[in-house]
Amino acid sequence: MTSIQKFLDEQKAKGLKDTSIKTYSKALVRINAFKSMDEITKDDYVLYFRLFGCSGNTRMSHSIIIKRFFTDIGKEDVVSWIKPKRPHETIKVMIYSMGKM
After folding, report:
1. Which of 7, 10, 18, 87 has the fewest CB atoms nearer than 10 Å to its CB?
2. How many CB atoms are closer than 10 A to CB 18?
3. Distances in Å between the alpha carbon of 64 and those of 8, 75, 96?
4. Could you report the per-residue pLDDT of 1-60, keeping only the tens digit for each?
5. Where are the alpha helices (DSSP H) in the chain?
6. 82 exposed, middle or buried (CB, 10 Å; 0-12, 13-18, 19+)?
7. What pLDDT is attached to residue 70?
8. In angstroms, rounded to a whole number, what is the distance separating the alpha carbons of residues 94 and 48?
9. What's the rounded Cα separation, in Å, for the pair 2 and 4?
10. Residue 47 to residues 9, 18, 37, 64, 69, Cα–Cα distance (Å)
């Protein structure tokens, strides 16, 4: 059993809905296809998120899923830098920053 499948099974046992399990699976399989979860580094994640063409909400959910996965398997150091923000919070910060110009 892979670490991804084990994580998904544990999430299901905790009561996560099937639709959420599918979303988790898609996110984790996608990043694993980009670079093996066993070998991935912070620099790889930065590149992945830079190249990852998606909406702000999808980017946020993938960040949360990836952070939860690595925290759960005891590799917090790989993802400790990830600070998921809601897209509207980012926009508010940008608008506030522009107002100070």
Report:
1. 18
2. 8
3. 14, 14, 25
4. 588 999 999 999 999 999 999 999 999 999 899 988 888 888 888 888 888 777 677 778
5. 3-13, 18-34, 42-51, 56-72, 76-79, 87-99
6. middle
7. 87
8. 23
9. 5
10. 29, 30, 14, 17, 19
